[in-house]
Design brief:
Elements: H1 2-11, H2 17-25, H3 32-39, H4 51-60, H5 71-75, H6 78-81, H7 88-104
Helix pairs in contact: 1-4, 2-3
């Protein structure tokens, strides 16, 4: 789903749906909206992620598919409509390049014997 993809891009990991579902199922008196709020983003501190972004992802990952936003609602969401830094694509590219180079490790040259 698009919500899973956005979560992966923003947080660098897949959403922990199994924790959310098990945490929420303990209280059967909660509405599905209350269940959704109880588990989302509580396991870790994501201080660098804007609240509007977290809210959008939470909405996109709602356990009830009928309550998830349409593509038009996603595109008009305040976080999606906000202006990004002009050099953001370049920043993302440079960070990904750095991570890719780091993951490849140092280049080891073979010594002739």
């Amino acid at each position: 789903s698009l919500g899973v993809c956005l979560h992966l891009l923003v947080f660098g990991e897949y959403p922990a749906n199994e924790e959310t579902v098990s945490d929420c199922s303990e209280d059967t008196n909660m509405s599905s909206d209350e269940e959704q709020k109880k588990g989302f983003g509580k396991e870790k501190s994501y201080y660098w992620v804007p609240e509007e972004c977290k809210e959008l992802i939470e909405w996109m990952l709602h356990t009830n598919p009928k309550k998830r936003p349409t593509i038009d609602q996603i595109l008009s969401h305040p976080w999606m409509a906000s202006e990004m830094a002009e050099d953001l694509p370049q920043q993302v590219y440079l960070e990904m390049l750095e991570r890719t180079n780091f993951m490849q490790g140092p280049k080891v040259e073979l010594l002739p014997f």
